[in-house]
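Q: I'm writing up a methods section and want to include an example of the input and output format. Could you take the sequence below and give the corresponding predicted structure tokens, formatted cleanly so I can copy it straight into the document?
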Amino acid sequence: MRTPKSYIDNLAKGIVTERMLCDVLFSYNKRAKNWRDKKRQYKHCYSTNSLKWFNDALENEQKYYNYKSQLLHLLKPSCIHEEVLENDYECIYQYYLLFYVGDHSFHEPIQKEKLSEYSDLKVIRIEPLVTKGASGGKLLSTEFADKVREALLNNKAIIKLNSK
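A: Here is the clean output for your methods example:
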């Protein structure tokens, strides 16, 4: 996606709108998922370069999830989602903080031991998550997303959330 001029102008003024933040988070999240999917593909590849490709994909997946996490920590979560994964031997419980930004929602994994830090949030059981990546044409450039993230983390921009 081409970066809208209004986004560039807002960032120059030190403003990150909710729509901008949503698009940055969406772009980081989908890029991470794209790398996750490549990692899965390389795991079953038997090329001489497959281990390097797998490690590169893993590194990029973690990088983009970390960028998303850095931004989500600037916001207040709405609730905690509890996902139960079952197999023949056990039930695995996974927990996620849920954030709403713009017209999207974002999950941030959280360890069970840290749930007490969010005792004010309701825990809601959900069906197992199924997520997909997205084509690069639907995402903001990594350069612009990085500028927004760096401006927010360095207190050179503020988030202007829409009032509800």
